[in-house]
UniProtKB/TrEMBL annotation:
Signal peptide: none annotated. The gene is mreC. This is Cell shape-determining protein MreC. Residues 130-273 form the Rod shape-determining protein MreC beta-barrel core domain. The lineage of its organism: Bacteria, Pseudomonadati, Pseudomonadota, Betaproteobacteria, Burkholderiales. Belongs to the MreC family.
Length: 375
């Protein structure tokens, strides 16, 4: 009787043969799917069929994460709501104070008959791209001369000064940022009113407040705003904040390091200001002392200067012509004067002789007596 194992314990191909078969099948599927995308449809069908199972398995996690987010969001919203209410109250108080100050300022200007010094117009713009030069802090905005952008206009955002327009094209404009090494802005310290000029640095991350004496009252944390004395920037725009003050005894000026208030590199939407300063022009400059002394010396020596010299020379030439014509007529007069000199001398001699003869005649006439006179 032939022995055969039951169907449950029948053995097929060997384990090694099955391993090789499935390895070859896997490689064939990988290659065909990578080269020819043959299993895209199968993968899509399997994904659609297994998606409900995946969502069902993730429900506990979603519930837990949703509850945690709800708690955190509620706490965050409460804190932000409290901060916004406090800030709203502060801003309302500042707005009321600003309205009162504006009304008082208008009343005082009307009382003193002073006109408004400045008017500022704004134009929104957006940064398009940076310039190609990596050693300069410049950007290009999408507004140009056709939209009213002018060369030298200040550029700001909601926090403070960003830079200044340095080149204008028909549809674009180039803005030099505040941190550029060649950019300078006249500023003043809010706390003390000290005026100076702030410059960018070669690194482009800080600002340098120059020409500050060592004895000046400058402290860390002081706010700097535009002074408005240059006629380019409106007064009162936030510029920077002092972060370090170095005072050395061997130098006349202190080194003041500042950080810009506005995010110079983080801003995307900007405002281009068109500042009109209604200040009368400067009077004509008077000549200095050196020029005045030179003109006085020229007049004293008889040497005419500038246009008056040419006019005087032409007048002198015109006057010399009749004088030259009159010179021949004057020669006989000089000769006559020369002949008159001997006759004048003879007349004087005759007068002297007559004076000598007169006493002699008086002596000879003295013995004579008048008729009827007694001896």
């Amino acid at each position: 009787m032939e022995y055969s194992p039951p169907p449950l314990f029948k053995q097929g191909p060997s384990a090694l043969a099955r391993l090789v078969f499935f390895v070859v099948l896997a490689l064939a599927l990988l290659i065909s799917d990578a080269r020819f995308k043959t299993l895209e449809i199968v993968r899509g069908v399997l994904g659609a069929g297994l998606y409900p199972l995946q969502r069902a398995a993730l429900v506990p996690r979603d519930i837990f994460m949703g509850a945690a987010d709800l708690a955190v969001t509620s706490a965050t919203l409460r804190q932000e709501n409290d901060k916004l209410r406090t800030k709203d109250l502060q801003l309302s108080q500042q707005a009321n104070t600003a309205a009162e100050l504006a009304a008082e300022n208008a009343h005082l200007r009307a009382l003193l008959q002073l006109s408004q010094r400045s008017t500022t117009q704004s134009l929104p713009a957006e940064i398009q791209y940076d310039t190609r030069d990596p050693f300069t802090q410049k950007v290009v905005i999408g507004r140009g001369a056709q939209q009213g952008v002018q060369d030298g206009s200040p550029v700001v955002n909601e926090d403070g000064v960003i830079g200044q327009v340095t080149r204008v094209f028909p549809l674009q404009a180039e803005v030099t940022l505040l941190t550029d090494k060649d950019q300078a802005v006249p500023v003043q310290i809010v706390r003390t009113g000290l005026r100076s000029v702030i410059y960018g640095t070669p690194k482009g991350d800080t600002l340098d407040l120059r020409f500050v004496p060592i004895s000046a009252d400058v402290q860390t944390g002081d706010e700097l705003v535009t002074s408005g004395l240059d006629g380019v920037y409106p007064p009162g725009l936030p510029v920077a904040k002092v972060v370090r003050v170095d005072k050395q005894a061997d130098t006349a000026f202190a080194r003041v390091i500042c950080l810009p208030v506005a995010p110079v590199r983080g801003a995307r939407q900007l405002l281009v200001l068109h500042y009109l300063n209604n200040v009368p022009p400067r009077p004509a400059e008077e000549p200095d002392a050196a020029t005045t002394a030179k003109d006085a010396k020229a007049k004293k020596s008889g040497k005419p200067t500038d246009s008056k010299a040419a006019a005087d020379k032409s007048a002198a030439k015109t006057a010399e012509k009749p004088a030259a014509a009159a010179k021949p007529a004057e020669k006989p007069t000089a000769a006559a004067k020369a002949t008159e000199k001997p006759s004048a001398k003879a007349t004087a001699a005759e007068k002297k002789a007559a004076a000598e003869k007169k006493p002699a005649a008086d002596k000879s006439a003295k013995p004579q007596a008048t008729p009827g006179a007694q001896p």
